[in-house]
Amino acid sequence: MGKVRHVLGISGGKDSAALAIYMRQNYPELDIEYYTSDTGKELDDTYNLIENLENYLGREIYRLPVLSDDSLNPFDHFVKMYNGYLPGNMSRWCTKKLKLEPFEKFVGDDLVISYVGIRGDEDREGYISRKSNIQSIFPFRKNIFSEDVTAKFLSNNNINNVLKYYEAFDLGEKRERFFEVISEEVSINFSQSQKLNNLLDLGIKEYNQAVFQFLQTTEYPLSKETEFPLIDNQEVLVRDDIFTILEDSGVGVPAYYKAIEFEVNGKKSTYARSRSGCFFCFYQQKIEWVWLYEQHPDLFLKAMEYEKDGYTWIQDESLSELVQPDRIEKIKEEYIKRKERKNSKVQSPYLLDILEDAEGEGCASCFI
Question: Using one digit for the tens of pLDDT, what is the confidence trace for 66-79?
Fold first, then answer.
């Protein structure tokens, strides 16, 4: 195997775009390859974002997947293969065929560090490849390492090794507390998460340095690197930071995140899209389907054309039923009530209350 490759996937969403900018600004010495999994069914705003990113980065963003049959776009290629069977919550073939398999084919058997844009205010892990040659790193989080690495590092049978790593550090007045936390075994009364957070609260840089030393004893891709600049990273970035990065860089925030006002039965509110991904993504909320119908009626009609032979995007109703005037009115009313229950005092042009509800749902491979 050759040198370790560094790769970063661009979903078309805010977080992966901001991560690409962040890595370019803070770690220009890393030779990062950028790629995007183009389903052929993205909003124009997504393609505009990718073009803006290429201009900012000064590098090509590789388009995946590459199909031998170029008569159909990637999504339609697989719809045909599956005889019109649409993807859904119970059968996410779109994620597998259009995201995961093309990515793993792209990296092959090379040793790879994959940078993932999950933020510090999110409680999820994201996609972790089962291939041993691919290691995920999360630069926006307090813990930049993946769950599998964390579990091995903090396992009870590794305590003595962790103590040795920390003994070489200048821990100052926190030294005694560091060793107290490290020496306590993970148990029902002291979870791995508690131990992790205690160590991170005592010192992020020290934790990263210790894990990096541990990784040198493993077969993870980082074991082949003599140094890794992110172990000195102590920043934790949250949602507001992401929008700031996009705006300040000049790349800009995709227009579909920005709130648009609507009125129903004398009440005013705003809606937007909460995610990147296909314009007909089955994970989007019903208010987002209404947004698509009212803001991009041509795309909504294209989504409707896929619904045949009993296959629908939404489990309990078809799109033709959803856009009946009475149904749209009810969806908007329910949405307003849901927003009112939140009692949110935050006003945002990016409709952060929708994002807060929805962005934790779905597949991280598509939406980060």
Answer: 776 667 789 998 98
What gap in Å lies between CA 181 and CA 185, rounded to an integer?
8
Gap between the Cα atoms of 14 and 244, Å rounded: 11
**Cα–Cα distance between 113 and 136 in angstroms, integer?**
6
Report residue 108 CA to chain centroid gap.
22
> Do 209 and 167 meet the contact criterion of CB atoms below 8 Å apart?
no
Residue that is written with structure tokens 């003595």 in the block: 160
Low-confidence residues in the chain, pLDDT < 70? 1-2, 68-70, 125-129, 343-368
Residue 227 structure tokens? 């140094």
Residue in 155, 249, 137 with CA at minimum distance from that of residue 196 = 155
Phi and psi at residue 166, to the nearest 5°: -70, -25
CA 268 to chain CA mean position, Å: 31
Is the Cβ–Cβ distance between 139 and 22 less than 8 Å?
yes
R_g (Cα) of the chain, nearest Å: 23
b/e for 126-143, b at 16 or more Cβ within 10 A?
Answer: bbbbeeebbbbbbbbbbb
Measured CA to CA in angstroms, residue 218 lies from 75, 152, 170, 211, 246 at distances of 38, 10, 25, 11, 36
- Give yes or no for a contact between 277 and 366, defined as CB atoms under 8 angstroms apart: yes
> Hey, which residues does 145 pair with through a beta bridge?
137
**pTM for the complete prediction?**
0.89
Structure tokens at 202: 């005592």
How many residues in the chain? Answer: 368
Nearest one of 34, 36, 47, 37 to 98, comparing CA atoms: 37
What are the structure tokens assigned to 250, written together? 């000049």
Residues forming a β-bridge with 91 = 88
Distances (CA, A) of 262 to 269, 280, 291, 294: 6, 21, 10, 10
Cα–Cα dist 34/63, whole Å? 9
Give the single-character DSSP code of 122. Answer: -
